[in-house]
Design goal:
The structure is a single chain. By secondary structure, the protein is mainly beta. It folds into two domains: about 25-150, Immunoglobulin-like (Sandwich); about 165-305, Sandwich (Immunoglobulin-like), CATH 2.60.40.3340. It has no helices and 21 strands. The strands form four sheets. A six-stranded antiparallel sheet has the order 11-12-13-19-18-17, with no helix packed on it. A hairpin with a 5-residue loop joins strand 15 and strand 16. It is globular and about 50 Å long. The chain starts with about 25 loop residues before the first strand and ends with a strand.
Length: about 300
Amino acid sequence: MSTSITPRMARARATPPARTRRGRPLLRASPLALGLALAGGGAALAEHAGYRLVVAARPAPAQGAATTLDLRVEGPGGAPVRRFDEVHERAMHLVAVSEDLVDFHHVHPRLATDGGLSTTLRLARPTPYALFAEHRPTGSPHAVLSRARLAPADARPARARLEPETAFDGAATRGATLGAVRAWLVGAPGSALRAGAPTTLHVVVEDVTGAPVDLEPWLGMAAHAIAVSEDLAYFVHAHAGHGGHAGHGGHAGHGGHAGHGGRAAARGAAAHLTLEATFPRAGLYKLWLQVRRAGRVLTIPFALRAT
């Protein structure tokens, strides 16, 4: 499933809740470290270097046109990885983000018997894209993050499109609406998102009509939250469990991830979620909250500021 959003999201006005190969472009990523924090069993940090993501695009990517990405993961020494264990019900989670942070995709490439993977994307922006691939090579004790870059024809560098004055900083509640669904990041006076420290995000999801929101589990969780730093150097993936259980996973680091599981609870018509994440350094981030309702995955963006 591919989830793509456009930049314009109406802010809620209601009262917030209380509290190249064969002529194809070939891209290769340099090794990156991964910091992984596991919920429930304490923080377990592990660094993984040497896993590279190699991407071949066919046809060459162009703004607005569909392109198929053939993906291969190379392990230490350059040997191709042929077997993967599932991470949240999939062999790979591929996140593509445009350099201006406007276009976002979270897809799950198909795994072939030889270990190759493929997926199709339609890149909406005329900018380079960062690709983040979460996977777990069989035998690895933890999930691994690999990354690469992809650029449509005539792509131009672009600055991140964020609104610092409306960024969630832990103190003021911020809301965003997608269709009939409104989501809130709930702040508390005097609180802050502290860079490098575990942070609990309190999220409320409701229907603007007052109807029960009835969120459905997606990829084994009640919600996923993916965030990147303004310069795309840092990647964070956190989760909220369902049925009141903590989720596993989460991630941070330079090109890596930081976060923990969380919980979900229904109170009246709204869903109350908690997600724990670590934002590695101070600065602005773009976060995409993903929940499923009535069989449809909804992606709601927020700007965040860590200090």
